[in-house]
Amino acid sequence: MNQRKKALANSSTFSDPVDQQRGCCEVADGKYGITLYTSCCNVTKGIYYYNTYENHQISAVDMHVENLDSDKMICYPVIQGERINYQNK
Hints:
By secondary structure, this protein is α+β, with helices and mostly antiparallel strands.
């Protein structure tokens, strides 16, 4: 595994011990807090990585693909639901 992928794998699990699990902390009557997502950014390469409570696979957005000088906000939908990476299909 190259150094960048190893660092990404390590950083994507660094918050696992402090994730707020569903049903663990009641914040209001019948409402519970959870960790919605964790993220990190490779500022050298301009890549934002994240995974969500509902999708543990790492997703990435390469900032250098976008026009960062634009006056328009760039938005991406958060990927929800687990995605399975079949290796033999």
